[in-house]
Amino acid sequence: MKKGKHKMEARGGGTPESSTDLRNHQRPAEPYVSAILYRNCPLPPPELPSLSEQRQLQSTPGTRDPAPPCAATRARDRRSGVAMADDRYRVKVYSLNKDHRWDCLGTGYVSSIYVKRLQGVSLLVKSDSQASAILESKVNSKTPYQKQQKTLIVWSEAENHGIALKFQDAEGCSEIWEDICRVQGKDPSVKITQDLLEESEDQQLDEVLETNNVFDLPNCELSKLEEISDFISSVLASPIGKERLALILENEDYIKNLLQLFHTCEDLGDTAGLHHLHEIIKGILFLNKATLFEIMFSPECIMDVVGCLEYDPALAQPKRHREFLTQNARFKEVVPITDCELRQKIHQTYRVQYIRDILLPVPSMYEENFLSTLTTFIFLSKVEIVSMLKDDNNFLSQVFAQLRDETINDDRRRELLFFFKEFCAFSQTLQHPDKDALFETLTELGILPVLKIVMSMEDLQIKSAATDIFTYLVEYSPSMIREFIMEEAQLSEDGNLFINVVIEQMICDTDPELGGAVHLMGLLRILLDPENMLATPNKCERSEFLHFFYKHCIHNFIAPLFATTSEDICDGDNVAGSDRNNTNCLNNYQTAQLLSLILELLTFCVQHHTYYIKNYILSKDLLRRVLILMNSKHTFLVLCALRFMRRMIGLKDELYNCYIIKGNLFEPVVNALLNNGTRYNMLNSAVIELFEYIRVENIKSLVAHIVEKFYKTLESIEYVQTFKGLKIKYEEEKDQQNHIQRNLHSIPYSRILHRRTRVVEKEEKCFKGNSEEGEAIMPPLENDFQDRYKFMETKKTKENEDKVDPPKRASRGGYKFASSHSAPAANETHSLHGSSTVGLMNRLDDEKDKEDETPPRKRPRLSF
């Protein structure tokens, strides 16, 4: 009976305030409530309720029905069912009430996001009708979550407070389940994230509850270090035990007493005790509790923690990490820091990061969560450091004043830049409002003019640090950089612009692999990307900046391309010549890499800067120079040149097409295909794809040009049907044009003949009528005919003098003047025939023009 009574009391146990011994504290409620959920409580319905009022919630077999949804919830379901039916994150939220019945909290959409206020990944459910939060629950690393019925996730928030999410589909449930498992370091294939008690057996539950009387840490004594180490190792396997142990360590000086024993062991040379202390301290770190970190990483304890971690039993000799941190790792103050709290926070953050990265073992994929709180601790420390520096008005001003000082030596400037680089890296941890304020302050202090100075220096470390700082600024706000560049251009007199300095650093990179050039090219691409350019009613950043770039900068950017191909441009019809010097230059690997970077950015410009780059290509004959690079032995450069041409053709712009045809710019492409021979490689595929695209899109002008110029050369290639297909397209278009020409000839003549017949019949009727009235009919006079002939000759002479060439079919209108009987009659007949024919021809011309406007020009160019 005594034991039973003890069990009864334990089950209904007292509050934490009623216990004076923290070691006998009531065990955490979360696992206990989770256990109740899986034994005594009904589950939410197996299917998400429909949006119709007619359907009621289905109950789980063997359980009581949950409460039906309220009317307001059903109304929200009806309103949102159509608009959001396809969202796979749609859920129903249920809460367990005191009567062990499920209450519906509402319907909404769930997402897993990081919430700073909760300092962890949380499940957020927002209402689908009011956009208000129904649920905000932090994913606790120790809370057991259970996945059931493929669409249900259940867990406990607090004592007697269970939560369930019922998903509309299994896919959305699986995605949220994977996020939960990732936070807890579990395999998503499990159904339960933590070890749960078998609630069906009361004896096991009672035994766990009775641990209130036996959960005692061994006394902190030198002789019991092994016992303490074993105890902590055993507790780490139990989520309940870890919570209990953390509560004890938070409220006692146990950790400080352990660190005192560390000094005793070192003084005595007790190697075994030091090995035990290593396991003890590492185990406490794996409890992953921020409150414990505050104790262990305090100024009076952190170096002792490092000392304990030096004595790894796996090492023959301990590593001297404390010596490194105190003697080798020197804290450099580029500008004196007077705030003692700030200095202490910097020291602490560096040492904690050293512990995580150097002293602790690298966690496996499923153990990453073991140190998640430690990572968060470091993150928040960095935020605090940046905030304190930002709020110090004098500190940043002194840094920039020294950077602008031309008298300081390179070593001092290097230290200042290294500090500022790390400061910018830390600033990435700030929230957007704080980050906005910081970068606005940096702009006011003149960060960009300082970078312009230091990027031009010869010291590679200085240039590298300046480039990294510039990267942070570009990624944060490209518009800010563009605005500075254009303002600088208005004030600069020598033309030494910041963006040209960046371009110069790119094309003059001495790294054999061009690592710096690749980096800077990426930054230029961000600055030239129209997608991140702003447009306001009073300002269009895109047109202003692109106009500026193509006027002041692009010639510097493509200077290496012009320098490499300058001597290869010939005055004749050939596209490219090739002297030995330039061939050697093209075959140089570093030069080829640089040219490939330039072509990559130019290809991007063709796609996104349609108007500006088109004018530049046509005015500078740029494609002809680019195709010279196909003579290089480096296939990657040949492919870059081909990709540039392919992007131009892909726009299906007739100006580009005419430019390519007039310059015979397909010749180097065909030569590259022929020189490649029978090799089936990327170059072969890229060239074939180019011609296949022209065939499929039926770009008529290019089809005609290719067939007429190169078909005899390419017709032997039969492993693809591309070139035969081009020939077929060409013949079809040619037949269609011939048919149109025949129609243009036949339609006017038939209509003119019909009109002429009606005029003659009318004249005959008039002649008969006049004869019956007895009027004298005068034959046409020769003078009248001569006068009319002279008028026609005069008109033709005048047209010749004006150098106006009438269309050929208009010249056939001379047949209209075949007969007349009198001068007035002849003039009338001339007027009728002329106006009728001209009107018809104009209508045909208009119809033809409209037909030609729909696709590109339909008439193939038959001669060049």
- Neighbour order of strands in the largest sheet: 4-3-2-1-7-6-5
Given helix and strand content, the structural type is: alpha+beta
Radius of gyration: 43 Å
Give the biggest beta sheet.
7 strands, antiparallel
Q: Note the gap between the termini.
A: 112 Å
Number of helices: 38
Low-confidence stretches: 1-87, 196-214, 569-578, 770-864
Give the amount of beta strand, in percent. Answer: 5-15%
How many strands? 9
Oligomer: single chain
> In percent, how helical is the residue content?
55-70%
Mean pLDDT: 75
What is the 3D form?
globular
GO biological process, one term: DNA damage response
Family: Belongs to the SMEK family.
GO molecular function, one term: protein phosphatase activator activity
InterPro entries: ARM-type_fold, EVH1_PP4R3, P4R3-like_central_dom, PH-like_dom_sf, PP4R3-like
Structure description:
InterPro entries: ARM-type_fold, EVH1_PP4R3, P4R3-like_central_dom, PH-like_dom_sf, PP4R3-like. Pfam families: EVH1_PP4R3, PP4R3. Belongs to the SMEK family. By secondary structure, the chain is α+β, with helices and mostly antiparallel strands. Among the domains are: about 90-195, Roll (PH-domain like); about 215-375; about 390-445 and about 460-475, no CATH class; about 475-565 and about 585-635, no CATH class; about 650-745, no CATH class. It is built from 38 helices and nine strands. α16 (about 410-425) packs parallel to α19 (about 460-475). The longest helix has about 50 residues, at about 720-770. It is globular, with a radius of gyration of 43 Å.
